[in-house]
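Hey team,

Sharing the NAD(P)H nitroreductase MhqN run so nobody has to redo it. Sequence (197 residues) first:
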Amino acid sequence: MSEPRSTTHHIHEVFTQRWSPRSFTGEAIDEKTLMSFFEAAHWAPSAHNSQPWRFIYALKGSPEWEPLFAPIFPQNQIWAQNASALVLFVAQTQWIPPLMDHEVPLPYHALDVGAAAMCFSLQATMSGWDTHPIAGFDKESAHNLLGIPDLFAPLLLMAVGRRNPDISALPKELQEREKPSSRIALNELVSKGLFQL
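Structure output:
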């Protein structure tokens, strides 16, 4: 990174090293490495230990790639096409809790899958890879193309790859954004006791 991020308080450097590039080299990632990211993801915390996450992945150039790539909105396909892998994070939205005999909603499924996605991304960063979460995709299309059951919801796609310092292949407007983003000052987000704006 040309402009290191700074923090108000000391934290592990992995949190500031992780960001979401769009410029990828397209080089292959081996499945053993990718599986280590899934290993980290499935150790995320979840409400009632329900573990509502499911992961669908495809490697660039494989037969599985197109059904994962096709639902991505065109403005994101421009750069996602150079990723080494695509991962769809899917959430189980209902479950049968212990001591019950019928399904009920899993109200925290999105939060739990978000935690798994962050664990996935941090492990990738620590392994020398990068990730970019993609919200811009057709969820209904993904549901149909990938055979996802009705009680499961596709929440986000993740592009995985090696960051390419040559950003010339990106459209001009994306080249300008190809750098680590800043954050709102911590003292504007944290309040003691009562909510404060």
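The beta strands are 53-59, 85-92, 94-95, 104-105, 130-134, 152-161.

Ping me if you want the raw files.
A.
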